[in-house]
Amino acid sequence: MSNSSTALHDLSVAELAAQLRERRVSAVETAQHFLARSRAQDALGAYVALNEEATLAQARGADARLAAGTAGPLEGVPIAHKDIFVTRDFPSTAGSKMLAGYQSPFDATVVRKLAEAGAVTLGKLNCDEFAMGSANENSAVAPVGFEAPAPVRNPWDQSRIPGGSSGGSAVAVAARLAPAVTGTDTGGSIRQPASFCGITGIKPTYGRASRYGMIAFASSLDQAGPMARSAEDCALLLSAMCGPDPDRDSTSLDLPAEDFSRSLNDSLDGLRIGIPAEFFGDGLAPDVRAAVDAALQQYTQLGAQLVPIALPRTELSIPVYYIIAPAEASSNLSRFDGVKFGHRAKHYTDLVDMYKKTRAEGFGDEVKRRIMIGTYVLSHGYYDAYYLQAQKIRRMIADDFQQAFAQCDVIAGPVAPTVAWKLGEHGNDPLADYLADIFTLPASLAGLPGMSVPAGFGEGGLPVGLQLIGNYFSEARLLNVAHRLQQATDFHLQRPEGI
Ligand code: GLN
Fold this sequence. Notes:
Layout: H1 13-21, H2 27-40, E1 47-50, H3 52-68, E2 78-82, H4 109-116, E3 120-125, H5 167-174, E4 180-185, H6 191-197, E5 200-203, E6 223-228, H7 231-241, E7 272-276, H8 286-301, E8 305-309, H9 317-332, H10 351-362, H11 365-378, H12 383-404, E9 410-414, H13 430-435, H14 441-446, E10 450-457, E11 463-470, H15 475-488
Parallel strand pairs: 2-3, 2-4, 7-8, 7-9
Antiparallel strand pairs: 1-3, 4-6, 5-6, 5-10, 9-11, 10-11
Helix pairs in contact: 2-3, 5-6, 7-15, 9-11, 9-12
Glutamine (GLN) binds next to loops.
C-alpha cells in the first residue's frame, strides 16, 4: 500500500476510511487489494460471487466523490454481503439451488444504504440455504474457485465449521478478505459465527434495519447486522444500515437513523451486568466457561458489577423457535414454485407436477425438513397445540427479559455452549445443531439486540465469544460495553495462523 507500513487488510474500517479520505490510498487500489486476497484464499469457501468489473466501477465512483469532497462516511471502504441480500450487480442465491443464477433487479435496502454511505461491494458471501443452519454446512452453492458445493472453512482450524448461517461472512472478516461485512440473524446467525471465528457482530433490535430485499426465512425474527473485527467498526456500519423504510418494510421501526458510535468511550462505572444462571449450566463446555468468566472479571475491573439474574425459560426457546421459525419459513418459501422466479423443473406433466418437481429439486434437505415441520404445526388440529402455544411462550420469554432488565443494564453470557465443531461432526443429526443455538435464541425470540465479542480462546486455540444482550434500542450502549472490553483486551486483534 502507499504510505503506511500496515497492510491494507490489517486496517480497521475507521482507519481505512480515514486513509481514503486523506487520499493516501485510492478506493480502486483498496478494492483490488481485497479482491486479490479473496482469490488467493478461495480455499476457505467464503465467497460465492465476485464481479471485479462491478466492484471496480463502484470504487471509481468512490474515488471521484473523494476527489470532489462529497464523500460519505464509508467512502471507498470495501465490504461484502451475505448472499441472502439481493443485489443488482451480483447474483443472489440465498445458498439455494432454487435461486441458482437469479439476478435481482434491485438492491436490498441495507445494501443500498451502505452504498449511499460510500461502501464498495466486493462480492457475496456463502451462507446456509435460506439462512437455515448453525454450521454453514447446508449451502447448495459452489464457492468461488469450486465446481461443486464445498464447505466454508474456519480459518482458525480449517477442519472446523465457521458457524452459521452467516459463515462466509464471518470467515471473510476473520481471514481479512473484507474489513467488514453484512450478516443476518434469525436465531443467532450473526452472533454464533462471529463467536466461532473470533470477530465482532451485532444483531440490532428487531425492526432497526429494513428487511426489504433480504430473502425471507422467518419474518418475525429476521434481522440484518454488521460483522467486523471490532465494536467500533460495527458501530460505523450499523449507523449506515439502520433507519425506517416505511414504504418497503412495514415492520421497520419509525425511528430516525442514529449515530451508534456516539457513546463508544463512555465509562462502565456502575454498569450492572446481569448473569443468567441458565446460561452457565452443565451444558456449557469448561473452556468456553473459562473464557467467558475471565471476560466478566475484566468487566469488574472496568467498574461494572455482576448481578445474578434468571431467564427461566431459556431451555424452552429451542422448541419455541423450532416451531415458529419453520412455520414462518413454510409460508415464506411457498413463493418458490417455479413460476415467479428461480429454478423450474425441466420435465413435468402438468402444473402440480411442475410445482412438486421444482421444489423437490430446488430445496435441500434442511429446507424441506423445515417446510414439513412448519406446515404441520400450522395445520388444522395442530395449530393450537404447537404454534399457538409457542407464540404464548415466546411472549413469556420476552417478559422474562423485561423482569431481568429491571435489575441490570445489559446481560452477558456465552454465545454458544462449545467452540466450533468439526466439519461433518453433527452428521445427519439436525438436533445437535438446533441444541447449540440455546443461548442465542432467547434474544431473537424477544426481538432484543445482541452481540458477540471476542473473549479469548478455548480448546484447540479456537475463539470464544462473549454474548451481550441489551434492552430494546440499546445498541449504542451495547457497542460501548463491547468497545471498552476491546480497549482492555486484544482478542479481536489476534489472527489465525497463516492469514
Ligand atoms: N441456527 C438457527 C437456524 O438454523 C438460526 C439461523 C439464523 O439465525 N439464520 O434456524
